[in-house]
Amino acid sequence: MADSGASGKPPRGSGAFTVHLADELEVYFNEVAHGRPVGFVASQKWRPRTDVYETDDALVVHMDIAGMRAEDFSVDVADGVLTIAGERLARREGKRHYHAMEVQVGPFERRLRLPVPVDPTSVRATYEHGFLEIRLSKLPDRRSGSHAVKVS
Hints:
This protein folds into 2 domains: 30 residues; 90 residues, Immunoglobulin-like (Sandwich). By secondary structure, the protein is mostly beta strands. Strand 6 and strand 7 form a beta hairpin. 12% of the residues lie in helices and 30% in strands.
């Protein structure tokens, strides 16, 4: 039986209150305590927004990551995990005084467990208009269809 919150507190990450409280704490610690602009993230690595979907014959990963070049990405498939890494550099245009900072910069990495079997040699990656698209050919489902076996 799952814990229903006998302490009177909702489980972590459950509901809007927790999200709003986390947002308010981030603003406090970044703006008030450290004088950082709104949206500043102090983590070592960040996670670009990514969609993963499948078509009849492929698994497609679509990452929203503007401001880079194709050669800035590292894409690897091993043991059913797709790893996408790179680093988006900050734009350098003289001295700046930020009022808001929402564009993430620095190193990033996404590790995605692939939901279906894929051919690791089929990986194709393209970067266009700020989106990285990775296509992997799906392997046929070995459980489907019939396979006759001759008994000797």
